[in-house]
Amino acid sequence: MNNVDQQEISKFEALAATWWDPQGQSKPLHQINPLRSQFIELHSQGVAGKKLLDVGCGGGLLSESMARAGADVTAIDMAAASIQVAKLHALESQLPINYQQQTAEQLAIAQPATFDVISCMEMLEHVPEPLSVLRACNTMLKPGGWLFLSTLNRTKRSYLMAIVAAEQVLGWLPKGTHEHGKFIKPSELLAMTDQFGLNSRAISGFRYNPLTDKFKLHHDVSVNYMVALQKPEATSDHD
């Protein structure tokens, strides 16, 4: 149940004050957030009117995008400072988002088969047992529901881009934000989601262009990537 790394939580607690600064240390998240939203909207056939859960929501960037798109959003994170920032920003934005400080595993006990769409972005590489989070997400998904995951691939290129460039050279992220050994290859991620009978529907990478200082969705998944998975309509007893 206690699938939490306190050191990882502390890293994000320290970042809390800068979550909503588009030029601060969350700048890359601000840049890729519209692409994440676009990916979710496209593959889920729109989130308007759907119950959506954002797991590891941080300061609420994606949660707010989804609420603006008409989703009924619940969002969870274990970093208390991040949840406080997210709640305050949602108040300012006048968005009715249900923020809670708890783990996916805890929520799965209370709310099985509740959500039409679940997102878990840039979080799996920060927990001791990613499989445990995926099991909880699968439990909380309604039959036919969609699970959207994003994480970092464990490649030489991701080490150079996400750690050397982003943390040490450009200073986009605080040094030590990521550990390369915790990155997850797409084949490993899909092997885990296969255990629950989730069907992979789409995969996309992000490509950064230093000349325009912009990201775009790309078939190259060697650094960051997103996956869209769907729970079968006819539930089989996988969870």
Strand order in space, largest sheet: 3-2-1-4-5-8-6-7
**Class from helix and strand fractions:** alpha/beta
Report on the biggest sheet.
8 strands, mixed
Task: Supply the number of helical segments.
Answer: 8
Please trace the helix and strand order, writing H or E for each element.
Answer: HHEHEHEHEHEHHEEE
**Overall morphology:** globular
The total strand number stands at 8
Radius of gyration (Å): 17 Å
- Give the rounded overall mean pLDDT: 91
SS strand fraction: 15-25%
Please bin the fraction of helical residues: 25-40%
Distance between the termini: 16 Å
* Uncertain regions spanning at least 5 consecutive residues: none
Task: Write the SSE topology.
Layout: H1 6-15, H2 27-43, E1 51-55, H3 61-68, E2 72-76, H4 80-93, E3 98-100, H5 104-110, E4 115-121, H6 130-140, E5 141-152, H7 156-169, H8 186-194, E6 199-209, E7 214-218, E8 224-230
Parallel strand pairs: 1-2, 1-4, 2-3, 4-5
Antiparallel strand pairs: 5-8, 6-7, 6-8
